[in-house]
Amino acid sequence: MPQKVISIRPRSSGAVPPAPHYDGAALADTLGRAMRDLRISVTDRCNFRCVYCMPREVFDANYKFLPHAAILSFEEITRLATIFVRLGVKKIRLTGGEPLLRKDLPRLIAMLAPLGIDLTLTTNGSTLIKHARPLKEAGLERITVSLDSLDEATFQRMNDAEFPVAKVLEGIDAAAAAGLGPVKINMVVKRGVNDAQVLDMARHWRGTGHIVRFIEYMDVGSTNGWRMDEVVPSGEIVRRIGERFPLEPAEANYAGEVAERWRYRDGAGEIGVISSVTQAFCRDCNRMRLSTEGSLYTCLFAQQGFDLKSLLRDGASDDAIRDHVAAVWRRRADRYSELRSAQTANLPKVEMSYIGG
Ligand code: SAM
Fold this sequence. Notes:
By secondary structure, the chain is an alpha/beta fold. It contains twelve helices and twelve strands. A twelve-stranded mixed beta sheet has the order 7-8-9-6-5-4-3-2-1-10-11-12. β10 and β11 (295-297) form a beta hairpin. Residues 1-7 have low confidence and may be disordered. S-adenosylmethionine binds next to β3, β5 and α12.
């Protein structure tokens, strides 16, 4: 049972010293990693209470979500995104919380689409039937839908919101019909909870063109009571699926791609595995995260972000903000997953729903 925590949001990064002037050179951090992907959390709220992400014991009726005034407006998000793109970001993923709970999200999509980046979104799919077409029309290109099981009882035990599988499946169909496919489907695998459904999930989506990605259960945040023995190593997942439907490795689409690709030998498509626990990929990590309230994180496991919202709201120029972002990236040295150990695993960490999954 996860313990009640007093504060699961990070400390503020405090007063901001001036950043060195950005010289225009390609950005690389202290480990030589380039900046490529930005994930933006557009809300810290969610209508699910997934046991591994926003457990109901913590995110209950008394939980204080961010007030509207504290979260970045669409104009602020777009201004920051434009600065990031000028610094080299090629892909933006909107996430949360549940991004489709943010009112009028297609308006934000329409504001970001002209940036010409790979624009995508991760959702629990619960409202996609309604939202798929407006999202596509606003300029969204692709979508990822989380679905942890096709078995009703297991899925509802995991989402802890009595949400039925059928509605998510209809949402995936709606996304494909709107032109947002092929859809990526994320399944977080927890041993003893839904790992018995791995093969069913693979079988269901084989041959559809959609791509299931099996995700190792991660020790993000401090509220999910994570234990290593609940992680199913992706090697085991590939072996289990491959015994039934033979697989072969496929090339990454680009350097630093999070999922490792495997294709069915009979041509029925591909799956992905995300092995952030058993085969940490920090050395290729090219991601940053912008939290709902405008703090910038270079690691999912960070304890502290860099407060961009204060710069925005204190009237900083685009150039000044750009200098800070460049400096944050250049001094980046984190590689939490590679260093994961008894000590680091017990540090208080920022929740995924806040920082953006
Ligand atoms: N609400 C949206 C959704 O459900 O997809 C977006 C936010 S959610 C935090 C983004 C992704 O993070 C989901 O695919 C979710 O399953 C995954 N996730 C959350 N907690 C996780 C954990 N402890 N380990 C692995 N993946 C996790």
